[in-house]
Write a structure and sequence with these properties.
alpha/beta; five-stranded mixed beta sheet; 20 helices; binds pyridoxal-5'-phosphate
């Protein structure tokens, strides 16, 4: 008998309506709605059509595939209805991991988001007068109380989408068509797409570089000042350090120059800590309060780095300058929504109460090596067995977010190796598990740092490690 022709095979493909009448598919329609199921049928049948055209099926194989069509539709439906943004277990030990969403929010922040967003709120409504209000008052008050120590009467804060937006708004407001003096050693790129010279250009400010890559003196700033100078800009280098033959003016020298010549000093601080960094062993970093206290006019910082809150960019400082930024029409384009205000307000309230433990990123930074060791040893004893080697070793966690590039926190790591599998194969298996587990790979080992794993995730992590282990056992026939 001659093999069936291509058109004959294609004619066997059912119409969408026929598939919709199959019993399993009928239950799918009841559960997820006709539109989504219809889409999945088209995709699944389309796949069969492609396979036929590519000559992958004979008559019998096609019949077999058609029998499996309802299951294929169900699998396709599950894939297409799965949310793309999913929780993962961050076992990298990088606390403010930009690719994993930076700071996890506190329970209080999440509760406040839910409460204020599931109904209407007084976002821009003055409950006393019944008139239109301003959305920024919701957090300005808390920033004043947190930063008040520096200059109670003057410190005021507005919030925009992120720190990059804060830099754009500050420079556009203060320096449009005027000059901004920056040290060559601070013309940094942060996170791939944020480059100080590019943002400067978009802001319509004119960049005036001074000094050299490794050395800039206060005299370099002073001699660059002209009648066109609008801002002295200090940029935190964030993700790199210059060492060796270096020189940089102190904040005090910059403040003195800015006062003497009456030119605002703006600091792009990035990580923007609102707590004493010495509590995590970092010295020589100002934090927001330190800079304001030293006399910086406006400090720009992120909401989801050291602050431990939602993505946002803050402009804090001299009330007259911040008021100018608020009235810039760019502010309207860069402003944040109620979800951000709610999360930020609840996070800031924890600072007012000095309840640092309630903010996950701060809690992780303060977690002791002893406690991590205890957790690591108990997890190791749960998952170790022949086929999967687990050792508990010394290591370092990373704060991330450009906080202090060389600052690390001592930790204990689980080091995993598996005969017959490379570390990157093991890491890929962990990523593909449910929930996905993201690890570090170093020197041919998979490293797991429990500093960034929430205690309530540890049993899920143990489950994943146990399953990966039996997967590997099955693959290698052991
Ligand atoms: C992180 C950082 C930025 C960018 O902040 P986003 O909140 O990611 O926009 C800008 N400047 C400095 C110094 C930073 O550290």
């Amino acid at each position: 008998m001659a093999p069936p022709s291509l058109p004959a095979l294609l004619r066997k493909l059912p119409a969408v309506d026929e598939v919709l009448r199959l019993p399993l598919v009928v239950t799918l329609v009841i559960r997820e709605g006709r539109a989504a199921v219809t889409d999945s049928i088209r995709t699944a049948v389309g796949r069969l059509r492609d396979a036929i055209v590519q000559g992958q099926f004979d008559d019998q194989q096609l019949d077999f595939a058609l029998e499996g069509l309802p299951d294929a539709v169900e699998r396709q439906l599950a894939r297409s209805l799965q949310l793309s943004l999913r929780p993962v277990i961050n076992a990298t030990g990088v606390i403010l991991h930009t690719n994993l969403g930076r700071a996890p929010l506190s329970v209080e922040a999440l509760d406040h988001v839910r409460q204020s967003a599931q109904t209407y709120s007084n976002l821009e409504f003055n409950l006393e007068t019944g008139e239109r209000g301003q959305r920024d008052i919701h957090v300005d008050r808390l920033f004043q109380s947190i930063l008040g120590g520096s200059n109670p009467a003057a410190a005021s804060t507005i919030v925009v989408n992120n720190n990059a937006a804060a830099v754009l708004l500050a420079l556009n407001t203060l320096a449009e068509r005027g000059e901004v003096i920056v040290s060559r050693g601070e013309l940094v790129e942060i996170g791939g797409s944020f480059r100080i010279p590019d943002v400067m250009e978009k802001s319509n400010g004119i960049l005036r570089e001074v000094g050299t890559t490794n050395r800039t003196r206060i005299a370099d700033y002073e001699s660059a000042i002209t009648e066109k100078t609008r801002v002295l800009l200090r940029v935190h280098r964030s993700n790199f350090e210059i060492s060796g033959f270096t020189e940089q003016p102190s904040i005090d020298e910059l403040v003195a120059l800015s006062r003497r010549r009456n030119i605002p000093l703006v600091e792009d601080q990035g990580s923007g800590a609102l707590f004493d960094l010495r509590t995590i062993g970092i010295s020589g970093e100002n934090g927001v309060l330190g800079s304001l206290r030293a006399g910086v006019d406006v400090v720009l910082f992120s909401g989801d780095k050291m602050l431990g809150g939602p993505q946002a960019g803050m402009l804090s400082g001299r009330a007259d300058l911040v008021a100018r930024m608020r009235s810039n029409s760019l502010f309207r384009a860069l402003r944040v929504d109620k979800l951000t205000y709610a999360a930020l307000e609840a996070t800031l309230l924890a600072y007012v109460k000095m309840d640092y433990e309630s903010i996950p990123a701060l809690r992780m930074m303060h977690l002791s090596k002893d406690e991590i060791t205890r957790r690591a040893e108990s997890l190791a004893s749960l998952v170790a067995r022949p086929g999967l080697d687990v050792a508990v070793i010394d290591g370092e966690s990373v704060i991330g977010g450009g906080a202090a590039p060389s600052a690390v926190l001592p930790t204990k790591l689980l080091s995993l190796t598996c005969a017959g599998f490379s570390a990157s194969q093991l890491a890929a298996k962990l990523r593909a598990s449910q929930p996905p587990v993201i690890v570090r790979v170093e020197d041919g080992r998979v490293l797991i740092d429990l500093r960034t794993v929430f205690p309530e995730q540890i049993s899920a992590l143990a489950g994943v490690l146990t399953n990966v282990r039996s997967d590997i056992g099955a693959d290698t026939g052991t």
